[in-house]
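Issue 218. Parser rejects a valid record. Input:
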Amino acid sequence: MTETFEFYHEKGDETLAPLLVLHGTGGDEHDLVPLAKRIAPTREILSPRGKVSEGGMNRFFRRFSDGRFDEADVGLRAGELADFVQQFSLAHGWKKPPVAVGFSNGANIAAAMLYLHPEALAGAVLLRAMVPLQDIAPKPLENKPVLLISGDSDPYMSAPKAIALAKLLETAGAKVKHDMLRTGHGLTQSDIDLSQAWLDAQG
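Output the parser choked on:
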């Protein structure tokens, strides 16, 4: 493969879309595997490690010291990840593109993939995401299913930023379900329950 990632892979039900599992800042390829197994115990899992290091913490793209995203790097890394996923899919004979399940930084790179490379994903579960790219609109998303789960007191991905992302994805044609939980940035049992129910409904 041209763009190599360290990754965790576990086979599953070939009739269901696999999960592309994307960790948050400081995580790795194993970090969200237990979550993935709870919300979709029979699906195949591909969980890559972000290739950017920020103070020794793994990330999927760079950000500036003031917290703003390096949007040129966001675009580059989203393309690398989309290429990796599509090459992996061909090599392993996947019948369907994966559904991304991303948390925080992982949710934001998944959102960037929806913006720039929607063909690489069958849909997405975005846990604590915000708008990844400010100056471009998403490509046409043609009823692509997206679950966005936000925290109303999240200090990093504020409610207005999450609502803005939901509106942009809807305008591009995605079928968005947006749940706003009474919580902060961390994941809760409600995130697990809502994600599992949504994935079950996708078939």
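Fixed in the parser; the record now loads. Residues 71-92 form the longest helix (22 residues).
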